[in-house]
Amino acid sequence: MSRLRIAYVLSLAVLVVLLGFAVGHPMVSGTGSSEVLRQQLLQTEDEWIVQLDIVNREGRDVTYAIDISVNGQPYSHIAVLEDGQHYGYAHHIYKARVGQGDATLAVYKDGTAAPIGQTSYHLTGVP
Predict the structure, then answer these.
(1) Is 36 helix (H, G, I), strand (E, B) or coil?
(2) Statement to judge: residues 9 and 55 lie in one domain
(3) Which domain does 2 fall in, by range?
(4) Rounded to whole angstroms, how far apart are CA atoms 127 and 120?
(5) In what order do the strands lie in the sheet with 117-123?
(6) Share above pLDDT 90 across residues of the chain, in percent, rounded to a whole number
(7) Are residues 47 and 24 part of one domain?
(8) 96-119 pLDDT, tens per residue?
(9) Which letter, b or e, does each residue of 93-126 get, where b requires 16 or more Cβ atoms within 10 Å of its Cβ?
(10) Predicted confidence (pLDDT) at residue 15 exceeds the cutoff of 80
C-alpha cells in the first residue's frame, strides 16, 4: 500500500471516531436557556391583542411570570413549563375601555429581577 493510501485510510478512521464522539457524547450537555418567541401586537377593529410564545430549554421545570401594564393598570399571569415545552399567551386590550396609551410587557423566569423579554407598545387607533 502506498503512503498516500495509508494516510487516507487513517484520516477516514479518525473522522469516523470524531463523528462517533460528536453524536454519542455532545460537548454541551443539557441546559439551554428560556426564550420568548413571536412577541407581537395585533390590532383589530375593537381591540389590541398582545401575543407571545415562551419555550423552556432549561433542562428542568420553570415558572414564568408574564406582567403586562396597560396605562399603569397591571395584569399578571403565571405559567409553569416543563423542559422543552412551548407556551402561547394572548392578552386582549379592549379599545372601548382603554382608548389609547401605552402597554408594557415583561416576562420573568423563576422570580428573577431581570426580565428574559420586555417590550413596550404605544396604543393608538380608537374606534
Answers:
(1) strand
(2) no
(3) 1-30
(4) 21
(5) 73-81, 62-70, 101-109, 117-123
(6) 50
(7) no
(8) 888 888 999 999 998 789 999 999
(9) bebeebeeeebbbbbbbeeeeebbbebebebeee
(10) no
How many independent structural domains does the chain possess? 2
CB half-sphere exposure, 84, CA atoms < 13 A: 1
Best CA proximity match to 41, nearest among 127, 126, 124, 98: 124
Per-residue confidence (pLDDT) for residue 27, from 0 to 100: 47
Q: Output the pLDDT for position 111.
A: 78
36 in Cβ contact with 53 (< 8 Å): yes
Question: Mean pLDDT across the stretch 63-91?
Answer: 94
CATH of residue 70's domain is 2.60.40.10
Whole-number pLDDT of residue 107? 94
Do 99 and 61 fall within a single domain? yes
Amino acid letter, 84: G
Integer CA distances (angstroms), 55 to 44, 78, 83, 117, in order: 27, 14, 8, 12
